[in-house]
Amino acid sequence: MTDFSQEPGAVSGAVSGSASDSVSEAASGKVSGHAGEVARAAERRTEPRTVIQSLGHRDLTLATAESLTAGGLSSRIAEVPGTSVALLGGVVAYSSAVKRNVLDVDAQLLQDRGAVDPDVAAAMARGVASVTGADIGIATTGVAGPEAHEGKDVGTVYLGLACRKTSAQRLGLSLPAGAEPAAAGLSPEAAQTWLSGSLLLDLHGDRGEIRAASVEGALKLVEDFLLTEPHGIGDRD
User: Fold this and answer.
1) Where is this region: Disordered (predicted)?
2) How do the pLDDT tens digits run along the chain, 237 residues long?
3) What is the CATH number of the domain that holds 34?
4) In terms of C-beta distances under 8 Å and separation of at least 24 residues, what long-range contacts does 190-196 make, across chains too?
5) Is position 10 within any domain?
6) pTM of the prediction?
7) How many CB atoms sit inside 10 A of residue 72's CB?
8) CA-based, 20 to 30 A from 165: which of 21, 91, 188, 196?
9) By residue range, what is the domain housing residue 145?
């Protein structure tokens, strides 16, 4: 297993149970650990500038759809001067109504699964890319606390990623290791148009730490996707 508090690479992990081993990884690709450590591990290895440069070099654009992070991800990306070369915009979709009406997340999927769900995260990413005209969408949905929500524990976060298949095929890009392909809430047209999936974060910490880890994890997921060689968030040595 890789402990990303010590070695280069991507954020990934299984619950470790000790402060010295707070970020490690599981075969499922789930990212688990203390939210503060997950955030710091990702932040040490990913800078918004790197992501913006990678997008620009590949002639790709990005949009964000955020629930629990409430604009924190787009704000983090926009720290880079000249971000507009790649970042087209974002949607803060705290309510299910906004997810449904603005991001076109399937109403039945939301009713059956709730908002904190892997396929909802993927649908949010597809929706924001579609509504803004971006090549790539990145989404966050989860429970930051202080209480559980819709039967999901505090610290349960899904990151959604979507890319137009034409762009992915042009550059030979695929979902990073550990990301699960979207399996529900896809229309036939969406399935033909989008490469999309999600990654589960299983985090421990307070509300601020969970939100920060979600932002950094989402940024790292975009970077991993843009790399021709992973190693993705959930990758193992």
Assistant:
1) 1-53
2) 223 233 333 333 322 233 333 343 433 446 566 655 655 555 555 689 999 999 999 999 999 999 999 999 999 999 999 999 999 999 999 999 999 999 999 999 999 999 999 999 999 999 999 999 999 999 999 999 999 999 999 999 999 999 999 999 999 999 998 999 999 999 999 999 999 999 999 999 999 999 999 999 999 999 999 985 444 444 444
3) 3.90.950.20
4) 190/126, 192/165, 193/164, 193/165, 194/126, 194/129, 194/162, 194/163, 194/164, 194/165, 195/162, 195/163, 195/164, 195/165, 195/168, 196/122, 196/123, 196/125, 196/126, 196/160, 196/161, 196/162, 196/163
5) no
6) 0.81
7) 19
8) 91
9) 19-226
On the CB side of 20, CA atoms within 13 Å amount to 0
Please give the Cα distance from 53 to 180 (Å, whole number).
26
Query: How many independent structural domains does the chain possess?
Result: 1
Does 2 fall in a domain? no
Report the length, in residues, of the chain.
237
- 70 by Cβ neighbours in 10 Å (0-12 / 13-18 / 19+) ranks as middle
Helix axes 48-57, 207-226, angle to 10 degrees: 30
Domain-embedded: residue 235: no
For residues 22 and 111, give the distance between their C-alpha atoms in angstroms, rounded to a whole number: 34
DSSP 179-219: PEEP-SS--HHHHHHEEEEEEEEEEES-HHHHHHHHHHHHH
Asked whether residue 45 is assigned to any structural domain, the reply reads yes
Q: Both tokens of residue 210?
A: 């969970």
User: Which residues make beta-bridge pairs with 141?
Assistant: 158
